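pipeline stage [seq->struct] | target=Arginine--tRNA ligase | organism=Hyphococcus luteus | residues=587
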Amino acid sequence: MTLKDELSAIAGEAFAAEGLDAGLGAVKAADRPDLAQFQCNGALAAAKAAKKNPREIAGAVADRLSARPEFSEVTVAGPGFINLKLTPDFLAARIDALGADGRFGGWEKETPEKIVIDYGGPNVAKPLHVGHLRAGIIGESLKRIMRFAGDDVTGDVHLGDWGLQMGQLISELELRQPDLVYFDPQAEGPFPEEPPISLSDLEEMYPAASAACKDDPARADLARKATKALQAGRPGYVALWRHFVTLSVNAMKKDYADLEVEFDLWKGEADADPLIPELTEDLKKRGVLEESDGAEIIRVAREDDNKEMPPIIFLNSEGAVGYHATDIATIVDRKRALDPDRILYVVDARQRLHFEQVFRAVAKAGYFDEARLEHLWFGTMNGKDGKPFKTRAGGTLKLRDLIETVTDKARERLEENGFAEGYGEAETREVARQVGVAALKFADLSNPRTSDYIFDLDRFMAFEGKTGPYLLYASVRVRSVIAKAKTAGAGEAGPAMLAAPEEVDLALVLLGFADALRDAYAKRLPHLLCDHAFTLAQTFSKFYAACRIVDEGDAKLRASRLALASAVGGQLDLILSLLGFSAPERM
Ligand code: ARG
């Protein structure tokens, strides 16, 4: 139970004792923290329903609450708000429990679910665009949050490995090196294990091929034919396609690892392809698939639609499998392999229509409950010109380059702060990567998921303010206080005793973690956790400025403050890990 739940239950009992609905007891953080810690506005709603004076109801409920041991102060304010303050003893007991629960007060779900999160979504051989970056960052955080809350979560990268771009690449290589064994229509394999080209060849070939296809219909036709032959299983093409995927995936794995994004499954659109013939039959049987101009389509418009809802093209008139069909087949594949309760898609806002169509189609076919498919869309990371972020040269973002950029920038900052002295090159680089990645990820996650934001590396990288580096710095500082206490022989952490207002404030923030985590979980909004982490770091700072820890003379007070500090350190590091990054040993 979170602290707010517990207080709401207590207030609810008081309302019930007055013959009113216990639900009126809902307690929230005080609007005026200078006057109270929590408040309950239930008397206003109760008065409306009962046509009574709200202050009278509030007074009666407040009298009951005053009689309870949890509160040091219960007052009625304004038209009938009940303001609450908890006793230091009550808070101290909760802090002791938080220190002992092994979760630093983190909320836990009552009934865990099995969840698949589809995020990342990079395309083989194509450079990443900023949408893929945000998908990776937000998806990773949601995965970690849900896993911590108790869900059984599988993260799947869902590679874009099955589209026309694969045919464009194959035909490009065929034009350049027609003598390769892969292009012999008779060849059955086995084919060489080593790829015939390198990753940089692949990266050069992709834009060349796609430009050529754009300019020349005959060239585009070659690509289409190659795609069709690949999808039909021509052995040489399939072998080549495998090489392309492997080259690309090996590079992506390294980039994602540096970004601290980890997938459980490296499946892709191609993995759904074998299901297509069977699904085509089944969808026809269910009367969901219709023929239209030689294509197989699914109508997904509904009567109450007040928006444009075009039908899905499941197979086009050439029989090629498109993006909708692979997503539908992937849902069926996931159901068979994992039988999840829910599938979440962390994919940018531009694909809202796509997912709405897909979800409707699988619901229509009876394959999956629409309410358990969620498109967790997000806004765009823009450049300072307000348009989707591009590199300085105007190109699409490469994840590798972005990681280099943030690492270099972090290193500059660290060196300005005198970090590099005394540390080896390898450690300096690794700390710089950690700080750079934290800056980038926190900047992304601290914006509400659905908002756009502007990429501003200087702001992201600041060591002061609501930034990743500030939080890392706070974490390092808390740990250094605890380490200092050890070397100074300041004793162990002990039961909490809250005297100074800064201690009470810190305890309240620590105890607010469960609510923040639950909200972030329920709304799928990691920024709520970012807000909590920032408040925690700031409140710790004030506490640290006001209260002696290591050199506090009173042993009991010292032990209590050490307990508070280690709760802060543990909770902060836990949140950083839920956001998808970690603090270095020192910085
Ligand atoms: N590869 C796609 C793209 O680049 C994103 C994939 C998102 N996931 C999905 N199941 N459709 O746009």
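stage status: PASS
auto-comment: The pocket of arginine is lined by residues 118, 121, 123, 158, 160, 327, 345, 347 (CB under 6 Å). The chain has four domains: 3-86, 124-158+267-375, 164-258, 417-579.
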